[in-house]
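Quick one - first record:
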Amino acid sequence: MRHTLAGFTTGLSVVAAEIDGQIVGMPANSLVSVSLDPPLVSLAFAHTSTTWPVLRRAPHWGISVLGEEQAGILQALRRPAAHRFAGIEMTIDDGAAFVRDALATIAVTPHSTMPAGDHTLVLLQVTRLHRDTTQRPLVFFDSTTNTLSHGKEHAHG
């Protein structure tokens, strides 16, 4: 299953919140748009995650969609949780934490959770959105980060 789904390109995001004065969060490539009315997105957290039990306590979360210029922060995000955000420029808004200058930011509040195999699926209510249309996305394909190799193409027909 991992091998086959590695052929499905996804964006790369960071989900984070400020809890007890410290930023808690992790990279996520499971971000999915679920509903426009009400505005909902989802993320999936592995049952083995040590970040999820802490993050779930926060009433407001920030999701930052990474652009090509943020490729360097992914290595930092692999560090142990206590040091994960050291050196990464972050912005805090009402407890939601965002990577500064991200391609897009999505402010959310937890809506509901459900078990999903070895993960917990979390539905999140979107409260604010912003997108920098001048940036290009950082993407995850074939188990590695990539950039898009060409500009926008328009369908003809």
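second record:
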Amino acid sequence: MTNIGFGDSGFNFAVYIANKPNMFEYQSLTAVMPLVNGEISAINQSCGNGWRKVFNVYAKVLYALDKKYYDFSTQAPTWQDYRDKVLLQAQHKTALLFSAPQLEPSKDIVHIICGKGHAKALISNGQLNANLVWLNDEFAIDSQKKLIVCPYFDYRQLSNIKIERLANLLKSLKKLKNGTEKL
């Protein structure tokens, strides 16, 4: 199986989403394609507010992460600058994937599935084999596979408080890797 989506093909931070922008040029993607400056803005203009929210929340999540474990927020002065000049571009280690997760615990890749519904669909279709522990109705984790299920990347579903919860879960995955914490 091949990863399909936007971002750096050498990613170490992957977000999985059920849909892709409804633009002709993205309908036949067969690999991970890096975005270029201005492309997120073009997608937002063409596809509307929903995609603007996805990109904004993605950048806000990266910016909320503990700098001790993740360096995304050091690459731009604000999350808005990060979104516009760094997010999903080549050599920046992030991906937004439309394909099912390829979980290889030996690799140092963090996986986030947007939405409980998407995660359950992947499981029922046999595209996801994970030992998810549901922490509440919205968040689940498989720490061995470095996988988190969280609310969809939308302001109402993944509010700032929930972004902080996700950031703390991601920090716990890094601490587990380093052997300093047990989940």
